[in-house]
Amino acid sequence: MSTATKFPVDGRRVIFYLFYDPRGIVDEYVTYKLERLRQHAEHIFVVVNGDLTDEGRAALESVADTVWLRENVGFDVWGYKSALEEFGQERVEAYDELILMNYTFFGPVRPFEPVFERMNELEVDFWGMTMHGAVDPNPYTNEDVMHAHIQSHWITVRRSMFASDEWKSYWREMPMITSYVDSILSHESKFTHHFETFGFEKAVAFPPEDYPAAHPAFDNATMLLDDGCPVLKRRPFFHEPLYLDREAIIGRWLLDSAESYGYPVSLILTNMAHNAQPKVLNTNASMLEILPEAETGFDRTQQMRIAAIVHIFYDDMTDELIDKLITLPTPFDLYITTTDEAKAELIREVIERRSEPLIAAYEVRVMPSNRGRDLSGFFVAARDVTLSGKYDILVKIHSKKTVQQAPNAGYFFKRQQFDNLLNSPGYTANLLSLFQREPGLGVVFPPTIHIGYPTLGGAWFANRKPAAALFKKLGIRVPLDGVSPLAPFGAMFIARPEALTLLTQVDWQYEDYDLESNHTDGSLAHVQERAVSYAAGELGFHTRTVANAEYASISHTFLEWKLDQLGAAIPGYAIDQVHLARNGGWMDTSDPVGFAKLYLSRHRPVLGAVLRFGYIPFRFGYRVLRKVTRRSPKPSDD
What we know:
By secondary structure, the protein is an alpha/beta fold. The chain folds into 3 domains: about 15-225, Spore Coat Polysaccharide Biosynthesis Protein SpsA, Chain A (Alpha-Beta Complex), CATH 3.90.550; about 305-550, Alpha-Beta Complex (Spore Coat Polysaccharide Biosynthesis Protein SpsA, Chain A), CATH 3.90.550; about 570-630, no CATH class.
C-alpha cells in the first residue's frame, strides 16, 4: 500500500549522478548541468565508472559533494547499486528524495525549476522526467511485452519507496549486468512495472501519452523542449542516421531549438566530437554549410592570422592557386612547397610579377623528396609553420590535375575542391566567419566527392586498418566510421592549428611515405588524409563540410538520381533497404549470386531458405573464382 506524499517544503534531496567517459575527461556539459542542479540537492554524489584525469576529477569536485570512482563493471545499474551501498541505507533515509541520474543527456535546455516545482506538489512514490511507451513484443526478446517505463537517465524516488523492503530487495537481488541488453531487461524496462505491482504510485513530468511516439525523448525531442523539458538526450547525435531519416528526426533543428532556449550548443558539439563517429555526427546534425557568395557574417574587426600552405607540383597552376587564395578577406603569409629549384624559381617569378597586396609575406621551400606529395609538404616541410603558434588559421591547398583519371573527372574534382573552399571573396569570408562564431570548430573542407569517382559505399578503401593502427599509436579514440570516413578527399582543408596537433606534432620524415610509384591506398599519405577529422575530434574540435550553391545543386541532383535508381530495386525506407541489401547480398549486376540472394530474400523468402542449403558449398567455389577474375576497384585520388 502506497504512503506517497508531496515533497516537503523544507525537504532534503540527494542526487546520485552516474558518469562514464572512456578517456576519463569531463566535458563542460557535465559541470554545466551539475552546477544548475546544485540548488535543488543537498548532496550530489557522482559515481564514476572507470577512471578520471586529474582535470576531470577537479572539474567534478568543483560541483559535487562526493566524487567516487569504481571499476567499470555492471554498467549504470551496478554503478547506482554500488553508490547506494557506499552511501549507506541509513544515510539515504535521512533524505526525502533521491534521484538516480546519468550523463546521457544535455541540460538544462529549459530550466529545472518549473519541473521540480510541479512534481514537488504531486503525492507520488517515484517519478521520472520521460517515459518510454509499451512495446509488444519486447524488441529485446521478441516475446511478451516490454512494459511502459520511466527512462533511467532520470528516476526520482521518495522516502516512502526507498525506505521500503521492496526497494532493498530490488537492489539486493539485482543480477550482474554484463551487456546493454541486460541493463534494459534487468533494470530500465523492469523498474517501473516492478514497483507499480507493489502498489507504489508513479508520475511522469512529460508523459508519453502527450506525444505521438512511444519514445518521445528520442523521436519527439523538439516537442519536449517546447513543452519545457530540460533534458535533451545525447543519442540523436550519434545514433544510426538511417533511423533518423526514416523518422524525420532533424538533429540540426534540435541544435537550433536548444540554442533558441539559451543552451550553449558548443557543449553538445564538443562532447560529440569526442564520442561520435565524425561522419555520423556530420549527418545527424546536418553539418554541411551551403555558403552564399555575398559576405554576410565575417567580423573584420577581429584579427585573424592566416597561413596558406600550398604544395605546387604543377607550376603552371601557380596563377590559378593565387587567384583562389586572394579571395581570403585579410592578408596572409604564403608558404609554398615544391619539388625542385627550377619550379621554385618559376613560382617566385609569378608571385613577384603579381605583387598581390594580400600576400603579406611568402616563402618557397624546395622539398628533398616528393614522397607523400602535398601531405609530406604539409606535415614535414611546413611542420615549423603548423606548430609555430603564429597563426589562427591554416589554409591547405595544392596544385591538382588528377592526370591518372579521365579528364572530366579530374577537372570536376579540382573544381569541387577549389570552388567549395575559396570560391569568391564573399564566400571565403563567410567560410572564415564559421571559425569566428564557433570556437570549437576545428576543420572545414568540401563534402565527399562522388561524381566521377566510386567513393560512396566504401571510401576507406584500403586505409581503414592502417588508420586504426595509426590512431591507436597517436591516442586517437574517436570511433571510426564504418563504411566511409569523414575526410577531406583531395586533401584540401582550412583548419585551426591547434585542432591538428595530434598529427602535426609527430616528427614525420619523408622516408615514412611511400615512393611516388607506390602512392596508393594504405600508404601514410592516404591515411593522414583520412585522419584529420578524427584527430581534431579527439581534442574536442568538431568538423564542418562546406559547399557553394552551384556545387550543392549539382551534387544533390546526382545523389537524388542515384538513390532513386538504387531504391527502385529494393522498395521501402533506406534503413530497410540497407538492412536487406547487407543481409541478402549486394545489388551488383556483375555478381549474379548476390543478385539472386537479394531477389530471393525480397520476393521468395521460403524458396530462398530451402536453396540456402545447396548454396553454401557453391558459394565457396564461386568466391575463389571471383577473387581471381574480378577487377579491383579504383584507388582513391588525392
